[in-house]
Design goal:
The structure is a single chain. By secondary structure, the chain is of the alpha+beta class. A hairpin with a 2-residue loop joins strand 5 and strand 6. The radius of gyration is 34 Å and the shape is elongated. 20% of the residues are buried. The mean pLDDT is 79.
Length: 206
């Protein structure tokens, strides 16, 4: 229409609202693998991916694909199907734990607030995605990234929350009840032996 500027003539595009991602997806390792077939080798790609919500849920997945994008997509789907819940306590772990997968052995320890993540490589990425803010870790075995990732997940899964611990205080009531029962058994009067009494009566009659 006459009298309208160029900006007014252009139809306004609807503003695109960026939705926040529910999960944090990170690629840990990509490797090229080969399979010998008739006529040569067939090359594919293998991806190792970790997925987490930074609130205690984390999972890892490994898959192969014809290209890197396909491998990462498949691995992400596998990771989302194998979520575990991490028992967090004040941004760290409730207790120390250790796990071993193949040649990889991982040690995880809780840390006080302000320590940060003292970890490197695959372990640091997994703990960060899981929502751990303060932790100490050590890789004591193989440096294979796949085994290290699975060992880290096994260590996180083996943790027990504080409300399920069996402490010395929890054992005291049982021990006290046992002592009381033993004391009652000792105090109970023993049944009188009738045979000596019968002999005594017979002697009196004589």
């Amino acid at each position: 229409m006459p009298g309208q500027t160029q900006e007014q003539r252009r139809p306004r595009r609807p503003e695109m609202v960026q939705e926040e991602k529910q999960f944090d997806e990170r690629t840990l390792h990509i490797d090229r693998v080969a399979r010998v077939v008739k006529g040569g080798r067939r090359f594919r790609f293998r991806a190792l991916v970790v997925v987490g919500d930074r609130k205690g849920k984390v999972g890892i997945g490994m898959a192969k694909g014809a290209d890197v994008t396909a491998a990462v997509t498949k691995a992400t789907e596998v990771a989302k199907k194998h979520f575990i819940t991490v028992k967090l306590y004040k941004g760290s772990f409730p207790h120390e734990t250790e796990a071993k997968v193949s040649g990889a052995r991982i040690l995880l320890r809780p840390a006080s607030a302000g320590t940060g993540l003292i970890a490197g490589g695959v372990i640091r990425t997994i703990l960060d995605v899981a929502g751990v803010k303060n932790a100490l870790s050590k890789s004591l075995g193989s440096s294979n990234k796949a085994n290290t990732a699975y060992a880290t997940i096994a260590a996180l899964e083996s943790m027990v929350s504080a409300d399920k611990w069996v402490t010395a205080e929890a054992r005291k009531p049982k021990a006290a009840a046992k002592v009381t029962a033993e004391a009652k058994t000792e105090e109970a009067p023993k049944p009188a032996d009738k045979k000596p009494a019968a002999k005594k009566v017979a002697k009196d009659k004589e």
